[in-house]
Amino acid sequence: MSRSLFPFCLAALSLAVSGCDGAVASQDNPHIVEQGTIGVAIGPPAEANGWSMIWSDEFDGDQIDRSKWGFDIDCWGGGNAERQCYTDRIENAAIEDGNLVITALREQATGPALPPYLRAAADDPEATATKPFTSARLTTKGKMSWRYGRIDVRAKLPLGQGIWPAIWMLPEDNSYGPWATSGEIDILEAVNLGVPCEKCPGGTENRILGTLHFGGAWPANRFSSTEVALPGSLDDFHIFSIIWREGDFRWLVDGKVFASKKADDWTTTSSDDANAPFDKPFHLLINLAVGGGLPEGRGLGGVSDEGFPKRFEIDFVRVWKCQSEPASAHHCGGIWNN
Q: Residue 18 pLDDT > 70, yes or no?
């Protein structure tokens, strides 16, 4: 998500601009964008099918469990010119009625201009920035990471022009080098939900996407992305999932596959291993961004001041492990034959 690109006329995030190049990859256009369809249903994970839950947060307590979650605290904007300062204040992230609620507020705030990993090399490590919105980004970095398995997140997405919720993963260690050589896994992203959209079913923006980022260090990064119309109502909770095994990813919404990518679909300039960079542990991030090149360049443009505060509600996060490599089509529900 930090440098993610959305399909169609792709807005530049990171520090560069990418054009509207369709779904064809080439030396000049190393990005692949596909239109997904809601496909085969895959049942929920169960021990009877070889799955074991290895980590979860049901958000049933009175406050966010700091043994599971850390916070990014900065006003950097993710390299995307986003307009929020991320905080760890209860006003921006709290437990309410069994849900984690990340709240974006329209309020001016000042904080570190850069995240910690960029400050050491900065001319002014103590520089600050002021932004017109606040929000939160939670991360399991340094607390828990995973290689392979299934992640299910039940969530209700916020609406509005300039609003950008994301559930995604970054490598616990940059084993193959800086972004995007070590990869990025975007489980769920959406922008400008509920905004008028001529290209969208029903005339309203309702698209979600799953994406892999890989290739070389920026600006030699690449990505492969699939988007699909969110089934059902934008006002409802939905379950966003990814199933990841060696050389294989499946993205699901409400238990149905909408995207699939295999090792032939990605590379890294730092290794000849077909599975690299997606063969190392990744940690989880959940955040709500406001503005940035992606949402502001689409829909009605910019960021609308209407409808604040914006609430990204997460009912649960569950991480599952398939106990062994599939010995038959029925292993872990037979998902690898679908």
A: no
- Whether residue 266 contacts residue 246, with contact meaning beta carbons closer than 8 Å, is answered with no
pTM confidence score? 0.92
Q: Which of 82, 172, 184, 205 is catalytic?
A: 184
Q: Do residues 170 and 141 touch, judged by C-beta distance below 8 A?
A: yes
* Residue 8 in tokens: 């169609």
Select from 295, 315, 292, 6 the least CA-distant residue to 160: 295
56-94 residues labelled b (16+ CB within 10 A) or e (exposed): ebebeeeebeeeebbbbbbbbbbbbebbbbbbbeeebbb
Q: What is the pLDDT of residue 325?
A: 61
Question: In 3D, which of 165, 207, 169 has the Cα closest to residue 186?
Answer: 169
248 contacts 278 by C-beta, under 8 angstroms: no
Beta partners for 145? Answer: none
For the beta carbon of residue 328, count every other beta carbon within 10 angstroms: 8
- Tell whether the model's pLDDT for residue 26 goes beyond 90: no
**Which of the residues 82, 172, 189, 313 is marked catalytic?**
189
Beta strands in the chain (DSSP E): 31-35, 51-57, 70-71, 84-86, 93-96, 99-112, 128-135, 137-139, 149-156, 163-171, 184-189, 207-215, 221-229, 238-245, 248-253, 256-262, 282-290, 310-322
Q: How many beta carbons lie within 10 A of that of residue 11, not counting itself? A: 19
- Catalytic residue flag (residue 227): no
Q: Is 184 assigned a catalytic role? A: yes
Q: Determine how many CB atoms are found less than 10 A away from the CB of residue 173.
A: 11
d(CA 208, CA 202): 15
How far apart are alpha carbons 144 and 69 in whole angstroms? 9
d(Cα 319, Cα 324) in Å, to the nearest integer?
16
Closest to 18 (Cα-Cα) out of 30, 28, 6, 10? 10
Please tell me whether the peptide bond between 277 and the residue prior to it is cis, using omega within 30 degrees of 0: yes
* pLDDT of 330: 54
The span from the CA of 164 to the CA of 115, in Å, is: 19
- Does residue 195 surpass a pLDDT of 70? yes
> Which is higher by pLDDT, 329 or 53?
53
